[in-house]
Amino acid sequence: LSILLSLLVPTHAIRSPDCGGILTPSGLSYLAEVSKPHAETVLRQDLMAPTVPDLFLGSRERNQIDSVKVADLSLSLIPDAGLRLSIDVDLGVTPAPSTTKEMRLSILADLHVEMNPEGNLELVTSTCKPTVEETQSTEEMESKSSSSDVDKVINVDKICLEVSKLLLLPNEQLASLTAQFPITPSCQGQYLPLAAPMFSEQGITISLQTTFQVVGMGTPLPVSPVPFSMPEPASSSPYHLEPASSSPSHLTLAFSEHFYTSLFFALEMAGAFNMTIPVSRASQQGRSRECVFGGTALPHEGLGGAVCPAEKGESSPRVVLEEDKATLKLFLTVHVGAGSPAFQSFLSVNVDMSAGLLLSVASTRMMISAAAIEDVELSLAASDVGPVPADLLEELFLPTVRGEVPAQLNVVLSEGVFLPHISSFTYTDVSVVIHKDYVLVPCNLQV
């Protein structure tokens, strides 16, 4: 399907990121901490199962594992390679009915991230090195380190299989990153990883491309004028980001200007900006049989306005990001007419407007709302009632456009847009920082 879409939609053939994130060392530490209960559950279920082969090889008597407790689990970065997983497990082992031993099982495993054939990121074990030592025995309390059992060879295949099982849940969560998310009933979005993440001392950097489907069909997106890359701490970079190693946040998400433009373009393609503005009958200056629109009387019964995307070239919506400010530039055509249900237009007006955007985050969604319109330009597109002076156009349409268009935009945007996230995790302690050309979202993770 991806190949077919790339043929049908040429703009998708050039895959380039429009957003991404950096998981910091503090975020990695948090993930390790919340993973301990899961690791303990998996190891306890398998190592204490009576049908499982012995943990140790060469035992003359059967070793029965009575207890499994994860004492420590940590994840550390290996720049340009991946992660090192370290697990210390306290085992209670009963080699004979009358004796018990306490053993410390230590596992060191190197992990890296691959993209599987489905396009999902996947944690894979590179190397696995388990070791074990006896920490206490009811038979040999005085010489715990001299026990010959400590030198027994470990069943490496068995332990490393457990490590692979530990990765099943994280890989399910990583797969949830690429799930489609609804924006409107007819418009869905999806975040697609472009490559395996990059590992550095700063953290784990992942680049994503956002795609949109309208009624199930891929939407050709406007081409980004500037390729986007995740902001780096290097002073030579056009993007300035505090070093992740010194950041108190677990994760920093970044969204390019092109991301927001693509979002509004997809909404326009889905018809989200098409709206009908009914105008009720009223009287003005004694003209009781005339219909009032925006404070001026026109002699038409049942007058109303239909707002549609502009039918002129280069009319796609655009989002402009500047320091501490986001602006939506929207190009619409208002068709004014009468009649119901058969609407007949007799006047069309081009509306070029700019509105400030307010950005915030709630749970795993970015909330976007249009503030007051900052600038509106009206021009006559077509008229069956003769020429209409510019001042009359403003008198007719400006109050209604200023009031109705932002209000209906906010209805469309009220549900918010899902941020890139994995299942069971939400975002807390969030801030949204708008820079020129991109938006940063530092946040913490919460399972």
From TrEMBL:
**Pfam families tied to this protein:** LBP_BPI_CETP_C
Record's superkingdom?
A: Eukaryota
Q: Which Gene3D superfamilies match?
A: Bactericidal permeability-increasing protein, domain 2
Recorded GO molecular functions are: lipid binding
| Domain annotation Lipid-binding serum glycoprotein C-terminal: ranges | 245-443
InterPro entries referenced in this protein's UniProt entry, alphabetically? Bactericidal_perm-incr_a/b_dom, BPI_fold-BPI/LBP, Lipid-bd_serum_glycop_C
Q: Which SUPFAM superfamilies match?
A: Bactericidal permeability-increasing protein, BPI
The record's annotation in PANTHER family points to: BPI FOLD-CONTAINING FAMILY B MEMBER 4, BPI FOLD-CONTAINING FAMILY B MEMBER 4-RELATED
Q: By what name is this protein known?
A: Protein TENP
Q: Which organism is it from?
A: Opisthocomus hoazin (Hoatzin)
